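Final report, closing paragraph on structural work. Over the funding period we assembled a curated collection of sequence-structure pairs, and we close with a single example.
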Amino acid sequence: MSVTKAIIIHGTGGSPQGNWFPWLKEELEKLHLSVIAPQFPIGDRQSLSSWMSEFSKWLTAVDSETMLIGHSIGPAFILNLLERDSTSTIAAAFLVAPFVGKLGGKFDSFNRTFAERDFDWIKIKQHCKNFFIYSSDNDPYVPLERGEFLSAKLNAKFKIVRGAGHINAESGFTKFPLLLDDIKQFISDPER
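Its predicted structure, as stored:
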């Protein structure tokens, strides 16, 4: 199995130009990967259905040579995508500051359609065998336990990033070398 494509999914109210996404896109392109970083509807237009509709134009690019990388609500979108029968099996999913369920904050109304439901974990794992989760021990939005919960459900490789806030630009993350190193290792040895 070889990895030739990566798709980067931003979070609530975000864009592909935010956080560490442009840096990662550039670094992955240096590795000769084809990288897609879509702009999804935000604000009142943000919903699972609007994001699925936007993503439909890239759905044919999703296959066994694809990695999905998501931040914040991005991982919940990825889980929804993997749960669908029509989704191909992908190489790996890298989930940064991930969660499902209600967070009890100002973003819940935007995140509800993505995260507030029961997931079919068996079906999700049928479409992806390699999950990597990165959670911070001081995330102001997403408690560490959310990453631990997903790690257990997905049998993921789980890393705690100390003092990293929401692992976004606000927390000083315009680059994310740990993620890039793990992606490089996975590309060089997907069976490890």
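Helices lie at 21-30, 48-55, 73-83, 108-115, 121-126, 144-154, 177-188. The chain is about 35% helix and 15% strand. We thank the funder for supporting this effort.
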